[in-house]
Amino acid sequence: MSEEKSLNFIEEIIENDLNSGKYSSIITRFPPEPNGYLHIGHSKSICLNFGLALKYGGSTNLRFDDTNPVTEDTEYVESIKDDIKWLGFNWTNEYYASDYFDQLYEYAVILINKGLAYVDDSSSEEIAQLKGTPTEPGKDSIYRSRSIEENLQLFNEMKEGKFKDGEKVLRAKIDMAHTNMLMRDPIIYRIKHAHHHRTGDKWCIYPMYDFAHGQSDSIEKITHSICTLEFIPHRELYDWLIEHLNIFPSHQYEFARLNMTYTVMSKRKLLQLVTEGHVSGWDDPRMPTISGFRRKGYTALSIRNFCEKIGVAKRENLIDLSLLEFCLREDLNITAKRVMAVLDPVKLIITNYEENKTEYLNSENGPDESLGSRSIPFSKELWIEREDFMEVPAKKWFRLAPGAIVRLKSAYIVKCESFEKDASGNVSCIHCSYIPESKSGQDSSGITVKGTIHWVSVAHAETAEVRLYDRLFKVENPSAEEGDFKEYINPDSLHIIEKAYIEPSLKNAAMEERFQFIRKGYFCLDKDSNEDKLIFNRTVTLKDTWTKMKD
Ligand code: ATP
Ligand code: MG
């Protein structure tokens, strides 16, 4: 039974606009500020903006909102483009708000000429003081009544570099008693003698967000300008500027931003984690950045599915990271190749197996036949997982213990005959006998076993470093806790296994391949790997251990 998915509120608006003939096609945009790497929250906005255009046959611009020269960088521009492409989306045009600086300057002059903008010499403290409060009206600045001619001249001089940073600003002349504080003569241009990553030193005045965003939308004829809820109070100003400049009427719509448990999602905070060395970089696999998730082994499909599942709402909430992991497992379960790796090894010797013999056993790469199969070497000495042996077995223990039988995955049934301990009392070697008639696929032994364990042949094993990751924060919502969010960093978010034994086929693993290390989780190669050293990242565990622990 197929269930028709109901439209989200933005889709409803778009369908109405198309049906009524208001627009013949839609144009959306994704407008990142290039002051950091994209995070999982941005992917919601990306999937929404690009997804709507794909659904309704429109187009989507990528527009860098680069109006703040101090925090922006071309490294960020490149990473943002990589991430969007990796997520599977293509933009129609690549634009930069800074490309509109001349046009925006002209718009400001239009406002001045209409008597709707003035140059104010007040300091930022004075401006704040006169602004009033939500319950008290503000007061006019003494510069509010400057003549149009004087304003034109001063604004030109601001552009020419006659003044220092902060000496003057250009403000829209709206209403100092307006109920919306943002409408109390908002600053639209400020002086900033700073080098811009694209326009260099051409400009020393820069438009404020509110004087760049809506106008850029309008220049590009964006029909549906979708942003997050905190911009609701800005909408009035957005509309006021479009109306008084008499330019293409783009419209702003707001949806709830994505917040997720056990992480932070503001670029300012993420930057702190990077610069203060709490993580190795923006693409550290513990970061909630798209590049971090990618490096950790997430698939683009799983992130797109996650964004689809959480939907578009008008109320903020905190989404459980487990839901993203669920979407990931759903994908990897189908696509990841099953292989064997031993992370915490102990040696198993098959007493009745011939010395120096190697058998190549066939093993399926996964439940889906399309994944194919491979052959894996089997010999007298194997590595198995230390935790698969118990000297004194617990109740319902189906793995190895003195006298117990178990199947070695894709190989034979073995019985534990004895074991040795080293000087410090740790089990150092397990001796088993095997049943030659029990070979997987042609078992005629008639014996049934309850446990199957994985293994790697000692003589054929490759070694690898394995990095296991946990939540970056100890608490669900670090931003909501008292004090600095960094106090809540999980000190055990990275566990490195320096020497794990992996089956030889993994020597040829490719960067984009995903693996299930049987019984251990999903893994992928880390970009730090090289010819001499393989490094695997654990993408996610096989099961959601956290949700269980909380019960
Ligand atoms: P941050 O607060 O993390 O610095 P930002 O909003 O300043 O993010 P921008 O580069 O301005 O980052 O964001 C580009 C687009 O992505 C904007 O339209 C913004 O609304 C959207 N966006 C940012 N964070 C989220 C989020 N958590 N959920 C959904 N959309 C988001
Ligand atoms: Mg922003």
Please sum up the structure shown.
The protein is of the alpha/beta class.
Helical fraction: 25-40%
Domains (count): 3
What is the CATH fold-level name of the largest domain?
Rossmann fold
> pLDDT average, as an integer?
95
What form results from the Cα inertia axes?
elongated
Q: How big a fraction of the residues is strand?
A: 15-25%
- What is the CATH superfamily label of the largest domain? HUPs
The main pleated sheet reads as:
7 strands, mixed
Cα-to-Cα separation, first versus last residue: 34 Å
Let me know the number of strands.
27
Overall structural class, as computed from helix and strand content, comes to: alpha/beta
Strand order within the widest sheet?
12-25-26-27-23-24-13
Which second-level CATH architecture of the largest domain applies? 3-Layer(aba) Sandwich
Q: Compute the number of helices.
A: 13
Q: Would you state the CATH class of the largest domain? A: Alpha Beta
Named once each, the bound ligands are:
adenosine-5'-triphosphate, magnesium ion
Description:
The structure is a single chain. The protein is α/β, with parallel strands linked by helices. The protein has 3 domains: 247 residues, Rossmann fold; 158 residues, Ribosomal Protein L25, Chain P; 110 residues, Ribosomal Protein L25, Chain P. It is built from 13 helices and 27 strands. It has a 7-stranded mixed β-sheet, covered by helices on one side. Strand 25 and strand 26 form a beta hairpin. The longest helix has 17 residues. Bound molecules: adenosine-5'-triphosphate and magnesium ion. Adenosine-5'-triphosphate binds next to helix 2 and strand 8.
